[in-house]
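Kindly inspect this today.
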Amino acid sequence: VQAMHDAALMQRLAHNQIPLTVCPLSNVKLRVFPTLEQHNLLRMLDADIMATVNSDDPAYFGGYINENFTQTFAALGMTAQHAYRLARNSFEASFIDAPLRQRYIDRLDAVFAAFAA
């Protein structure tokens, strides 16, 4: 999340689509951000950074993956389009083989297309 302070690094991360694992609840617990409402995840997505939402030592930092998503979405006013982007980023960043990755992305696209209809 501190990459946002370096414009050249941000350009490289966006251009090369280097995935970043973001753990919003631990970022608050570690005082990287005073509150979840001040987290920069939306700015990262707006800057075309391939961010993903993750959990970091859930028992200590107070949130498994679902809590990281639900609390972050509530705090930042995130939308279904943000959910799509984060889900797609997670598939793009995964270490699965390309055909399986594409099947998951196709499924994701179908689910979101059904929502839009």
Remarks:
- The longest helix spans residues 98-116.
